[in-house]
Write a sequence for this structure.
């Protein structure tokens, strides 16, 4: 699964069907197959998806999700 592509959609509050039909002009089933790894997007479609989502193409299609730390644990101190 292309987790970064799904994350980019979520951040932009964009549904797969809206991206597929209104932005890319492809059937929603085709985009679903790409996201779930059952189909590979050609170079032109990858570029178009990256442009629409304003995201790095390699990050969308090859990267791993990196979630920033929300809070770091506080080191406990023993006083003496």
């Amino acid at each position: 699964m292309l987790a970064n592509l799904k994350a980019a959609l979520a951040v932009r509050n964009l549904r797969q069907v809206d991206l597929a039909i209104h932005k890319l002009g492809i059937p929603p089933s085709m985009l679903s197959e790409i996201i779930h790894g059952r189909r590979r997007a050609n170079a032109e479609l990858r570029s178009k998806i990256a442009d629409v989502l304003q995201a790095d193409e390699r990050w969308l299609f090859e990267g791993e999700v990196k979630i920033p730390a929300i809070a770091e644990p506080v080191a406990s101190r023993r006083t003496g």
About this structure: The two ends are 52 Å apart (CA to CA). Confidence is low (pLDDT under 50) at residues 68-77. The chain has one domain: 3-62. The domain at 3-62 is CATH 1.10.260.40 (434 Repressor (Amino-terminal Domain)).
